[in-house]
Here is the input.
Amino acid sequence: MMIDECILSPTAFLTAHRPDLPHPDLLKTYESFWRERGQLVSDAVDRMGTPWLRMFDEQGRRVDEVCYPPDYWTMLREGYRAGVIWRCFQEESLLPFFLLGYVTCFFDPGLYCPHTVSMSTAVPLYKYGAEAVKARFLPPLVAQDDSVWQGATWMTESGGGSDLGRGVETVARLHGDGWLLDGDKYFASNAHADLAVVAARPDGAPAGVRGLALYLVPRRRADGSLNFTIRRIKDKIGTRSVPTGEVELRGSKGYLLGTPEMGIYLILETLNISRIANSVGSAALAQRAIADAYTFARERIAFDRPIADHPLLARQFDERISGLRRAFALAWEAVDLLNSVWKETPRYSDRYHLFRLAAHLAKFWTAEFAAQTAKWAMEVYAGVGTLQENRVERWLREAMILAIWEGTPHRQMLDGLEVIERNNAHRLLIDHLGDRADPQAAESIMERIDDLLALPQDEKEAGIEPVFRELAEFTAGALAFHRQS
Amino acid sequence: MMIDECILSPTAFLTAHRPDLPHPDLLKTYESFWRERGQLVSDAVDRMGTPWLRMFDEQGRRVDEVCYPPDYWTMLREGYRAGVIWRCFQEESLLPFFLLGYVTCFFDPGLYCPHTVSMSTAVPLYKYGAEAVKARFLPPLVAQDDSVWQGATWMTESGGGSDLGRGVETVARLHGDGWLLDGDKYFASNAHADLAVVAARPDGAPAGVRGLALYLVPRRRADGSLNFTIRRIKDKIGTRSVPTGEVELRGSKGYLLGTPEMGIYLILETLNISRIANSVGSAALAQRAIADAYTFARERIAFDRPIADHPLLARQFDERISGLRRAFALAWEAVDLLNSVWKETPRYSDRYHLFRLAAHLAKFWTAEFAAQTAKWAMEVYAGVGTLQENRVERWLREAMILAIWEGTPHRQMLDGLEVIERNNAHRLLIDHLGDRADPQAAESIMERIDDLLALPQDEKEAGIEPVFRELAEFTAGALAFHRQS
Amino acid sequence: MMIDECILSPTAFLTAHRPDLPHPDLLKTYESFWRERGQLVSDAVDRMGTPWLRMFDEQGRRVDEVCYPPDYWTMLREGYRAGVIWRCFQEESLLPFFLLGYVTCFFDPGLYCPHTVSMSTAVPLYKYGAEAVKARFLPPLVAQDDSVWQGATWMTESGGGSDLGRGVETVARLHGDGWLLDGDKYFASNAHADLAVVAARPDGAPAGVRGLALYLVPRRRADGSLNFTIRRIKDKIGTRSVPTGEVELRGSKGYLLGTPEMGIYLILETLNISRIANSVGSAALAQRAIADAYTFARERIAFDRPIADHPLLARQFDERISGLRRAFALAWEAVDLLNSVWKETPRYSDRYHLFRLAAHLAKFWTAEFAAQTAKWAMEVYAGVGTLQENRVERWLREAMILAIWEGTPHRQMLDGLEVIERNNAHRLLIDHLGDRADPQAAESIMERIDDLLALPQDEKEAGIEPVFRELAEFTAGALAFHRQS
Amino acid sequence: MMIDECILSPTAFLTAHRPDLPHPDLLKTYESFWRERGQLVSDAVDRMGTPWLRMFDEQGRRVDEVCYPPDYWTMLREGYRAGVIWRCFQEESLLPFFLLGYVTCFFDPGLYCPHTVSMSTAVPLYKYGAEAVKARFLPPLVAQDDSVWQGATWMTESGGGSDLGRGVETVARLHGDGWLLDGDKYFASNAHADLAVVAARPDGAPAGVRGLALYLVPRRRADGSLNFTIRRIKDKIGTRSVPTGEVELRGSKGYLLGTPEMGIYLILETLNISRIANSVGSAALAQRAIADAYTFARERIAFDRPIADHPLLARQFDERISGLRRAFALAWEAVDLLNSVWKETPRYSDRYHLFRLAAHLAKFWTAEFAAQTAKWAMEVYAGVGTLQENRVERWLREAMILAIWEGTPHRQMLDGLEVIERNNAHRLLIDHLGDRADPQAAESIMERIDDLLALPQDEKEAGIEPVFRELAEFTAGALAFHRQS
Here is the structure.
């Protein structure tokens, strides 16, 4: 079997599918780091399992250090140094963030999370921070050396994350000229971050999602003491390169971003970034799973030939790669859209609503593709694919997290339905695709959507899945076909 | 949402879907054991990871003990005592094996493996063992107390398991009036078994799969010394309740089962049992994943109601349960067919060929359904579903092993294609379904198969997947519809 | 080499050295449980490491369950059922507690800790509890079936345990007719206990150790909610059969025992019990280490004979066993003294002061002997003694904890010095030994002590070690000689 | 309390106690590496436990890779680059090996083992290798860059290590112009070494220790295939920075070093190096334990002052440091003696016999001191010293291995007795000490030894312990006193 060897390298795949790729040498160098050292570090971190949290030092003082092996920090900082954050602010473009992220995720989808939440902290600070707050906290986030700070985005509490209006019980109280936060965050990615953006309800604000505001919370108070504590690191099945913790805010100093009334918009804007990062990462993970399966299959002999040459498997490889091209195209279209709207503030443009639908489609579709591809890659390996030592099983663990965090499939479908209903985003999408899409197919899917929208609310929701899936496939197909031709 | 509560209990689901269920009280009692104690033991075994192999005692003597906690043995033997093996030989029916297995797999799909390989050892010994060998080794396998022996089936070597003719390098040499085996088994389930059936090539036998024979190999020689050693326990992602090892045969005493010429038939017959066990286990696992998702969803509140009542999720529950009924029906049809042919020896009847196709369809389809259902259940849990502490992620790990061992999807499809081509098994299947199947649909699928069979070999293999999938869906649907109505 | 085989069994050793042994059959039965099942469970618990704390259930509700394998509970409750607590209250004697404890510690020194802290909870409740409190909480502690409650004693906080007056920052406030406690306990043995006795400072009480009071704190409030939370289980090197946690008291309901003014006496009385338990456990551990070393050495061959027969090693065995007899005699003398004073309340008799000196000597000397013996046993095993799989290294880990908790050697010496100075306890001891001690040796040691007492305070403390050690050796020797003759 | 701060740094302590210290800047730089990065890596390696052995790659090919995190190799190679091996051959002095080793062991006593066995491989190759063998294998062992090879010394088999004549069952057979080895090594330190020296019995050689020869065995054959396999990595309680394995030699190519008749001498010469390395490491570990205890004690407050200032503890610190000076002096005297005899070949000089007694005394005494000091340091930490997270417990685990490997105390005493009897080594020692020793004390100890030697053999052995201990204390005291004055 002959497949395009660009499948084996994330930079090569990017180059082949985005002809105008900026920073190609940077990406190549970054990929080299991963091949020579990063992958081994990542393997060791994954094998070690949930990292150890050192809560107290030997004198009984609370310290809350997440004890990764020292190499972890090397691996993590390689991306910061390469410019996953600082280049974006220098170039006023999110592309470096997503390009470097694609390479990162080919080797370790979990490690992109610290980068992502750092970006999701920097952006609202950049857009909505008071000048003094910005002057103090933005420079360390965009530092080009190892003094760089990390960010984090903490919304979810123990009651669940989809219904934030109900779930967020953290309260912020005015104290002097600042705010003090009290509450528990249950899924706190990058729990040892230097700086976090945190959803909380200002004391006296209305119930529900409209009463939430977004605060910047540093790890240490001015006097060096801990501004929040980490209750534990969660024992996730994957993405062990990001320490996801439970965080206890107890009179924690916070800085309001924007106004309390805008809080929910700011929260959703941070989700925009992480959902697109999730899509890009899903595509990269799927590429990696195919690459590993291919590397394995051309070496494994059965019935006198490499199993990659067995007709059934060969056909499956063709289909997987073709699927990857579609998922990849969808993810990167969402990137480009985000890159054109990321500085918008409410009230948003139609392009922003178009972006939002693209984001839901991309998050949903690429994660599903990544999970199915990882599962299939394990089946290609057969027995040895079920062993922890052969790494391919890791991709499924990682993919399942990609499928779930930043909103499960249900959330993407229902939020997608909302932006379709409220903002006619499906029509904006068809317009945006223009002659990249087959007009007849486009018309047909528009009709199906219109039929759905005519139903009572419960039936709309009950019926969204096949329609949404079709819209995702249609869009991905149109974009991939266009790119190829 | 109201769903049929029988989904929450394996015995209740069996009762609802097999009205003539034998041993209902036995099953209820066995399920009670699992609820009260077994599940906790199983959770602990899974959490402990790959069990420790004590290779040497403190005096440096090789001992090869697999160090499970003592409770493991309680859990394991509960099934033996209940009659997972002995009842079958007492009743001359495999039903007790599969019924108890269904309950076992609802709680621990990995634990059914020791039972299955014990059965897969007992059956060929019963059918093909020389009288003296049978007299010596069968009674301990069917013991009703805790003196019961365990069996094991060891075929695969390090080069892979699908092409046994190439992969088996273990050699058997005549020595005196017996055989001595030398070789390494790479996936040796239940590695600490008292007795194993082992594929090996008699010295001088022809290359390829026709040169293989099946041997009975006890753990200890007559003098009490170890007859084989365990190199290590493999670090699987799941099914940690069965110790899968690598076994080194070094001059290991073996007893030939049947004749060398019949070897490959005996090997395939052991696979018959384990593939059907795999199907039954897959159905049970899928039921469990749905049950857990439902238990979770009716407690978890979002947007002012249990998420089980959200229209999109409610629809998904309906579809999953409907899918389970089809997978369940297919698995149990395969059970009933096996139960009618399991004593056949070559040359086999048409009913045996019909069974073989049913077995491939069931193994393929039920495992796929189990994996997809486990994935979906994790998504229902959302964030907390990615945590090791909440058990639901375990079902996906277990399901992925069910999807792979006893033959990957590729193997099922290609072997299914073979029995279709050689034995017209697809027509035997349609005949067997009779008026349970929709005639038009049946005709249509027969046509598609005939079209496929008319293609050159490579294209046949390349094209089997959608056809095979359709045949599985069709069969499962027909059987489920019939059972319901 | 011929050694007295009673070294191999705790019951046999007890029988040989306490001719009037009560409950010999009970002890034999209890020892049989350990040989048949308990030891395997204990090995598995030790191998699993720090037990997993399930803090939240899948719905995000705080649950704080310590996840031992189910067998752990069987092992733990075997002692409760045998009467480690209830028999003492039935017989008004602590002997059953210490006798069963000796057997427990031969197999698992850590498991005696839950029993010990249960006793240390029951005794102050029995002696000082208000009638209503006693009526409610004592019966479950002395239940004879598996409904039995466990106790716990929580004094130490993160600043260290020896200076309680400074270390205890937990505060108790009157609220209605009861008390609410707030603070963090840093070494909370048996953290999942149903009931704990907790040191706290009543709001407004004076600083220092005189301001402390002792409270009874149940795990659950009347409404079933958790009355305290467990922050984490500590990662100890040994005694993994007791979950030592960090406990957070946050408005936790407490019941005052005795009066606030008596608090420090009550605290010290609980320490009396655990220090003697520690001494008994140390003797049992030392016996076990010798037993294991002997079992090993008579099997291991070097230079054509068992190493147990090598002259150097044979001499070491003789010395170890002789040392064990002395340590054993000292520990049990302390038991008998405690048994005669345990119901005293302040102001205490001279016999109580005599007991206190005996307790300090016994805690100090037996733990030191246990640690040295465990170290020596590892050296007998040589290379294989450094492997986790051969269990002997465990005794050293366990022994180090026995040497440290309930007060390090420094604490025993300094507190021993205090009771000598204040209460002339050394003279009470010599009188108590009577003609069991050699009069000349007694006179000589009394002189050394008097010389020491004549020094300035700093020099007294600096010089206590050799004197205290000699007094311990002298006392142990006198008692052992007497018992033998 | 004021203690000499040089206790806190290995280089400072070396500088203070060896005024003529070579390479002080090299040592400082090397110590800096450890403080900045090495210690963190070492902590992570220890926390990870026994490293994972990857036996097979995903294609089922045997690979036997020991999977440390990448940082491990950085840490390990830092010493090689600094010159722990190559400098010795450049300078024709073993001092660089021991000086760098002292610094290494202050931070990680286990990591010095790979360096030590590399040296113990290079030395016999250098002294006894045939020219062609030396030309091929010595250069990679003394390479100055990261291409450096590692060595290993594998003697012990499963029956135990003290009686090599009985224990070694590995056989070497002539095959063509070379040797093939078959056997199992049970304690194979640095199991993944590139090159090992291996004790084996040439086919037909006499039984007993005189029939053993020493072979050089490379990891790979000329064709790149594995020349031996690793059965497993042993689960030691400490020294996890060296992978100790079980090695299977199966027709493994070996190169004879020296002649078969000289084998036992070559074996003992490799032990000379590792025993002295063990002594140096024990001194360094003891210094570290004191340093950690001091660092802790001057921060921990109890009764209103740092516990380091409590009179009892202050006195213990003084005694520990004084003990360290004696142990240090004894270890380095043994180093200097070895450095003057390491190139000798049989028949040996009197100086060599003197060295041997010094080696036995040093190995015995320093390891005992290290273990007792580590135990004491844990007691200084009290409760927090029993927690894995506070590192001090590690020193006891490491110390117990130092006490046992390279010969237990029993072995040192009995071999010391032998060299005293056969070679009058005690008189050589007294002569060597000259006026550094108190003449009266010297005379008294000589008398005690002569009395002992006059006894029958069994009584001599039974009585050696107190005499040997006294000789060690006496020698260490004399050397330390001399150095100080």
